[in-house]
Amino acid sequence: MDGKNKSKIRRVLAAILAVLVLWSAWSWVPVTERITLELLKDSGKGVRIVLITDLHSCFYGKDQGWLIRRIDKEQPDLILLGGDIFDDIIGDENAKILAEDLVKKYPCYYVTGNHEYWSNRADEMKRYMDSVGVHVLAGDCETITVNGSALDICGIDDPDELTMKQWEDQIGRAFAETDPSHVRILITHRPEKTDIYEKYDFDLIVAGHAHAGQIRIPFINKGVFAPDQGFLAGYVNGAYTLANGSTMVVSRGLARESTPAPRFFNHPEIVTIDLK
Question: Which residues constitute the domain of residue 40?
Fold first, then answer.
């Protein structure tokens, strides 16, 4: 191969690398995904939920200002924090700044994710959330009335350090406290446990964990690989209807610098869910 052809190949490879770097950087820019669901069972005026998952204590500007402004712009009625808000490697500061700001303005409900347990400080993190006024749910259910509509907000721990029986017992205890005339919501970290969720008539299940497979395949809404789902992961982003009629909403999450692999076709996100 002569020098001219080698030079062309180097230029092509450099251009491809530059495109990949730029695409990865662009994929770090967060977005807001909006989903509307017809779930209200009364004549309420509607409920707006913001779902936040998989923050992993990542940085979103000074005092988390960029992320907080984006959330405030949605004017939510309540915030659901679906696990891995803290991380097992990155320090807690960014997660705490976000929680302490949001809880002053909105009812906030939190469940653990696997990284809270991997830190070996999950109980400490739950105590902290409770101390600042965040509702910590671990097999519990709380009823809240928003704009005339009654919501049962249930939550379960991540199963990382629980037996399956203990984890299912948490779901059963929480569901037993619900009222079928209310909108019944389950906050969980794991989207892949659909065979368990389908045993209970929750109207809405919210989850994260999958990071949309880190590389999301355009047009077919699957992830290249997601934890606990494997290759071509199916529950990675948006709304899914389960076999029992429950709606499950999965967030791509907000992880950025906490992950070793870049995101492609997969912006970090907050999810706004409007209940009508």
Answer: 31-275
- The pLDDT tens digits for 57-100 are 999 999 999 999 999 999 999 999 999 999 999 999 999 999 99
State the residue for tokens 């998989």.
54
- Residue 24 phi/psi, 5° resolution? -65, -45
What's the domain count of the chain? 1
The CATH number of whichever domain residue 171 belongs to comes to 3.60.21.10
Q: What is the mean pLDDT of residues 26-41?
A: 89
Q: Kindly list the distances between the CA atom of residue 220 and the CA atoms of 217, 223, 236, in Å, as whole numbers in the listed order.
A: 6, 9, 11
Angle made by CA atoms 184, 188, 194, in degrees to the nearest 5? 85
24, 54 contact by CB (below 8 A): no
Label residue 21 by pLDDT band (50, 70, 90).
Answer: low
Q: Is residue 71 part of a domain?
A: yes
Cα angle 95, 155, 35 (rounded to 5 degrees) comes to 75
Q: What is the pLDDT of residue 265?
A: 82
* Model pLDDT, residue 44: 80
Q: In what side-by-side order are the strands of the sheet with 222-226?
A: 216-217, 222-226, 230-233
The amino acid sitting at 91 is: G
Element (H, E) at 270: strand 269-275
Instruction: State the average pLDDT for the chain.
Output: 91
Domain annotation covers residue 157: yes
